[in-house]
Amino acid sequence: MKLKHSLLVAGIVAALSQTVAANDNLAGLHADMLGCDACHSASMQPQDDNLSIENGNCADCHGDIHEVAELTASAHVNVHASHFPGEPACTSCHQAHQPSVNYCDACHSFDFDLPFAGKWQRHEPSIAELAKEQADRSAALALAPRATTDIVVVGSGGAGFSAAVAAHDAGAKVILIEKEPVIGGNAKLAAGGMNAAESASQAALGIKDDVEIMIKDTMKGGYDKNDPALVDVLAQNSAGSVAWLTAMGADLKDVGRMGGASVNRSHRPTGGAGVGAHVVQVLLDNAVERNIDMRLNTRAVEILKDDNGAVRGLLVKGAHTGYYWISAKSVILATGGFAKNNDRVAALDPKLKGFMATNHPGATGDGLDVAANADAAMRDLQYIQAHPTHSVKGGVMITEAVRGNGAILVNREGQRFVNEITTRDRAAAAILQQSQGSAFLVFDHAVRKSLKKIEGYVELGIVPVADDLVALGAKAGIDGAALSQTINSYNGYVAEGKDAQFERQNLPRPLTQGPFYALEVTPAVHHTMGGIAIDASTAVQGTDGKAIAGLYAAGEVTGGVHGANRLGGNAISDIVTFGRVAGEQAAKYIGK
Ligand code: FAD
Ligand code: SIN
What we know:
Bound molecules: flavin-adenine dinucleotide, succinic acid
Low-confidence stretches: 1-7
Strand content: 15-25%
Largest sheet: 6 strands, mixed
CATH architecture of the largest domain: 3-Layer(bba) Sandwich
CATH topology of the largest domain: FAD/NAD(P)-binding domain
Strand order of the largest sheet: 7-3-2-11-20-19
Radius of gyration: 24 Å
CATH superfamily of the largest domain: FAD/NAD(P)-binding domain
Number of strands: 20
């Protein structure tokens, strides 16, 4: 079985393309050459939903994803060197008995071909549709639990991982489940930063901030619809959460500005790399170190309660092993938001019907249905946010940090039309009012160098570039002469330290160093502020106004932290802080 890579590069990869074309799948090729046991165990049945044996066999022959990435490095876009944390399993894309797909296509729409590119598509039955599989579910519930633990954490985003690590460290036995084949949810995509006030990183950079100012900014940004008790927990613990992550190995030393913040408080890795993939990687490493049982391709479908209404476990559906139940005294729901589910979004806010979304495919709102079926109360579901800057080409969310580091927004007429670092609801509304409902992020080489994240956008080929502004206008479809004038005026405001046009508060640098860049952007559904009602200890509130014993929730699946509009950078802070609280509280509930 140990064929190893070089052999594969020349021979098998070429054979693969031909045989894949002929067979439409990889299973045929492997069976012909090596027999079914090249991939499967003797029983021919998956032993677990991670497909540990099958994926282990892939890696034995082909190398792990990093080794495979070296082999595919010459491709126009090296999909094996993606931004995903951890080591995504081969079967996330190569499903063997069906054509391979590009999981990347779940979010992006690039106009270049990727190898083995079956079109990514999915019909995921809703929680309500799954309820019709009554016979299978009853059969599973009639059996003994397939696993027994203290706490089940649902969701492998930042909230879920933080809860799992915190609960483990408080002495509890934890199983973490995730319905997707890859970990990290929306958290792994987070770009611009994690907000915290009075942190060590701010102090090192001489930034003066105050927890009270973070509270004020958050309440103002949320139009005072937030639950003040939850905002208090968010802000008071924000620096502690940065310190908690730092102690586990995170680098959150770079601090920049995001929309709606009075001071620089968005923490990110040195040089401005995306915060989410880094934070998830750190949490994953810590979960692995602690030997936490992690089950991918495993979907939570029903919370099980005892006769007193307290949690006694969770019914799950494994993508490969079917229904089974886990016995547990406590469940923590950390299933994220529902921005990727446009039917649900449009039912709550019809003006967002048909909008693209910045989110990962698992952000469908399962957790809301699972919680509602367990009699949980909901709040603020109507508050749904669009991110102002989603690239028209490629479908990539362009982080607010690009504006925070100095980019301006102009329309086709070459004019600025908004304070670029206002709250994102205002920026999004202003962009939609411009001709063709889109605008351009314009920046210079100094802005590009200030933020590592921008390198990724340039590498993807979605950013028109030119040596001067008139040429840039011609390339991007902007009035170049007007653009030159606009930039001249803007540079004047930077020199004076006052934006006479839109009162933009941060003016970090003039736009003077060519080459110049213009990236077309339009709003896309980004964050769902409402969700499960919790108290400050993350206990889920029932429709009867009482806490549901043993049920906790944290992160984007909950409502109340962000009110009617979330500030950029506040979600990562939310999920780490409330995830930690949920883990600690659930452990306390079970007597640890
Ligand atoms: P998620 O990270 O979404 O994780 C939830 C997980 O639960 C998912 O993996 C999902 O598949 C899984 N799940 C769902 N249902 C089930 C089920 N039934 N069974 C099992 N598993 C299930 N915020 C910031 O503060 N700063 C940023 O810079 C930032 N940038 C962002 C960039 C992008 C492109 C996006 C989309 C969001 C960004 N956000 C940012 C917002 C932030 O990333 C999210 O709000 C946050 O990550 C949500 O974390 P979570 O743990 O609650 O949910
Ligand atoms: C971004 O980086 O622009 C997104 C930040 C956020 O959603 O908080």
